[in-house]
Write a structure and sequence with these properties.
heterodimer, A: ABC transporter involved in vitamin B12 uptake, BtuC, B: mainly alpha, 2 strands, 3% strand, globular
């Protein structure tokens, strides 16, 4: 066992890379839940995004185009969920589960011919001067564009929800859809848009896995990342800033356990690999234990079916 | 303009008709999918739904497989349906299935190579307890801390898969297995074997347990106060609380029962068709059972039929893989589609479709 082989600077830098897919999916899901919709299909949308992005990037050689198509793929798949839950008023929990099962099958089918191929490399966005700074340089300023985009996206979601009229309307729809409907807001349309945004974000997160983090396509490669993203939304009590915190926390645990595996710690590999899931549970328990606060923060209409009677 | 009008009570006729319609719609959409993959859609549908039962060459092999596959699906789905009815979402059945198998196999292997007839009952008990205990984790975290049972139970699937990987190459590894991962073959050890009860039927103890569970659940839901409480909680949690239903107790019971049944399914699988604990023991039954539960309308008899149908698509899918080179993922997609169509058609049983212009609100 050689713990000195773990370089803290490198650890923090790779933490951001490990956290980005979960962060992207979680921030999208937070917007969806803020609109009062519980989409449990994050895992399915992520893996569909992963395979769409990978195929397009391999075929065109352009990772950027891959990310665009991954977002599109995720959004289209989420639209399926949107139509079912919003127009056909199906149960959101069951439909979300269905979306995950469907997405896993779809991605496995689409990705058949792409197993074992390497994705085209994504250039790092080296910023002159900043990247050369000691310690801070490798941690903050030597990542690919998606890492920065994900952080910018969190900031944008935070600002839009807090300061803009659109954000206010979105929150109103999520808090009380009947009241929002009475005020003349198009509840279903707004929710569909939010669902598509969530799908696009999950797709981006998936593509980040298949194009940058791994970077390969394997069946079922998201391995629960979508579910962890869902847990992070609860952990963050529906606040954008805390989503960032939560995602980086999980990224840190994932990277740390991988580093411990590589360093040959005396703990069996299986126990290290299960640690991110166990810690997710632990965090969920801690966050949910304070019932009054959890209930205050959850959007009022979360998971409820909206049917305009008048 | 199409308008939807909520029915005062869900239509029973439509509730019974929608699964059939959903299967038909899935056949059509699946046919289109297979055509897009360059396979003959009619041949594919016939191979999936007809040949496993009636093909003169393959049917002799695949007919018994029907019960072998349907047994665990029905057993798990029956347990899940109890919770789903009450709005308690246990989606970690796959993990409970794995833990049941590990605990059961572990309890049995502790007595290897004894040939006592008490070993198999002990294993059954340990399997049920293993699944029950694994399901108690989300149940207790939910009742004590309000942690979301969907997320916790699902996270525990990944934990269980890691435990499985660990024990199959460590604790339960066959000492005479030349270092290969995987436990002793339980099927070949008389005391733990779960053999075919009637030759050529595929009937093993797990299938018997599934049938018993169907009957037991039917009686529970229609005749017992607990069944009434489960149904009441699902339809109106507020009314249930006024009627004196203890929600925490219901969560513990529903999750516990579904966990125990999933654990049993795992135990019967590991002692029968699978034969040993190995890394790839988890086969996704726990997730497919979710589709089975919904396809069966959360009704015991419906689940029995749905489990048989879903088993048919498994076997048919394997046949189609063999005969048409259809990818195995296509069948997974096919099953996912089935759930979607079913959920989409639910609108027909809950709402009335009215044609005509809606008045301005």
């Amino acid at each position: 066992m050689d713990l000195s082989s773990i370089n803290p600077v490198f650890l923090i830098a790779s933490l951001m890379v490990a956290a980005t897919p979960i962060l992207l999916a979680a921030i999208g899901e937070m917007v969806v839940e803020k609109a009062g919709v519980l989409n449990l299909g994050v895992e399915g949308m992520m893996i569909t995004g992963a395979v769409c992005g990978f195929i397009i990037a391999v075929e065109t050689g352009s990772p950027a185009l891959g990310f665009v198509c991954a977002a599109l793929g995720g959004a289209v798949l989420s639209l399926l969920f949107g139509v079912l839950t919003q127009y056909l008023m199906s149960n959101q929990v069951a439909t979300g589960l269905g979306l995950t099962l469907f997405g896993l099958g779809l991605s496995a089918l689409m990705g058949q011919g792409y197993v074992g191929i390497k994705a085209p490399p994504v250039p790092r966005l080296d910023l002159p001067v900043l990247s050369d700074l000691p310690v801070v340089g490798p941690i903050l300023f030597s990542h690919d564009a998606m890492v920065y985009l994900s952080v910018a996206l969190v900031a944008a979601v935070w600002a839009v929800l807090k300061y803009s009229r659109a954000g206010l309307i979105l929150r109103a729809v999520g808090e009380n859809h009947d009241a929002a409907h009475a005020l003349g807001y198009k509840v279903i349309r707004i929710r569909l848009l939010a669902i598509m945004f969530g799908g696009a974000c999950a797709g981006l997160g998936g593509a980040y896995l298949s194009l940058i983090r791994v970077p390969q396509w394997t069946e079922g490669m998201t391995a629960g990342a979508g579910w962890i993203a869902l847990a992070i939304v609860v952990f963050a009590s529906w606040k954008a800033g805390r989503v960032l915190l939560g995602a980086y926390l999980f990224g840190g645990i994932t990277v740390l356990q991988l580093n411990l595996q590589a360093a040959g710690v005396a703990i069996p590999v299986e126990y290290l690999s299960m640690s991110p899931y166990l810690i997710t549970i632990l965090v969920l328990v801690i966050m949910s234990a304070d019932r009054s606060r959890a209930a205050l923060n959850a959007p009022g209409s979360l998971g409820r079916v909206f049917h305009a009677t008048s | 303009m199409i308008r939807l009008e909520k029915r005062p009570t869900p239509s029973r006729a439509w509730a019974a008709a929608t699964p059939v319609l959903a299967v038909l719609a899935t056949m059509i959409a699946g046919g289109l999918l297979f055509a897009a993959l360059g396979k003959d859609p009619f041949a594919a549908i016939r191979i999936i739904f007809w040949d496993p039962l009636f093909h003169e060459q393959f049917a002799a092999y695949s007919r018994p497989q029907l019960l072998v596959k349907a047994g665990p699906l029905i057993l798990i789905a029956i347990g899940l349906s109890l919770g789903f009815r009450a709005g308690i979402w246990n989606i970690g059945a796959e993990g409970q299935y794995i833990m049941g198998a590990i605990c059961g196999a572990g309890a049995g292997l502790a007595f290897y190579p004894s040939e006592s007839i008490l070993i198999f009952p002990l294993m059954v008990l340990a399997g049920a307890l293993g699944g029950w205990a694994w399901a108690m984790i989300p149940a207790i975290l939910k009742t004590k801390f309000g942690a979301n049972e969907i997320l916790v139970s699902l996270m525990l699937v990944y934990v269980a898969e890691n435990v499985l990987a660990s024990v199959s190459s460590g604790l339960l590894r066959n000492p005479e297995g030349h270092g290969f991962p995987g436990s002793r073959n339980l099927q070949q050890w008389g005391a733990s074997a779960n053999p075919e009860l009637i030759a050529g039927s595929g009937m093993h103890w797990g299938v018997v347990a599934a049938f018993i569970a169907v009957i037991f659940t039917y009686v529970l839901l229609t005749r017992h106060i607990l069944g009434f409480q489960i149904r009441l909680t699902g339809e109106s949690p507020r009314a249930a609380r006024f009627a004196g239903v203890n929600p925490a107790r219901l969560i513990l019971i529903c999750l516990g029962l579904s966990g125990a049944l999933a654990g049993l399914a795992g135990l019967f699988e590991v002692t029968g068709p699978a034969g040993q604990i190995s890394i790839d023991f988890g086969s996704g039954y726990g997730f497919t059972a979710i589709i089975v539960a919904f396809l069966g309308r959360l009704h015991p008899v419906g689940i029995l039929l749905a489990g048989l149908l879903m088993a048919l698509t498994y076997i048919g899918g394997e046949l189609a893989q063999l005969m048409l080179g259809l990818p195995s993922a296509a069948i997974q997609l096919f099953q996912g589609m089935l759930l979607f169509f079913l959920l989409a058609m639910d609108v027909l049983s809950n709402f009335r479709i009215r044609l005509g212009k809606a008045e301005v609100a």
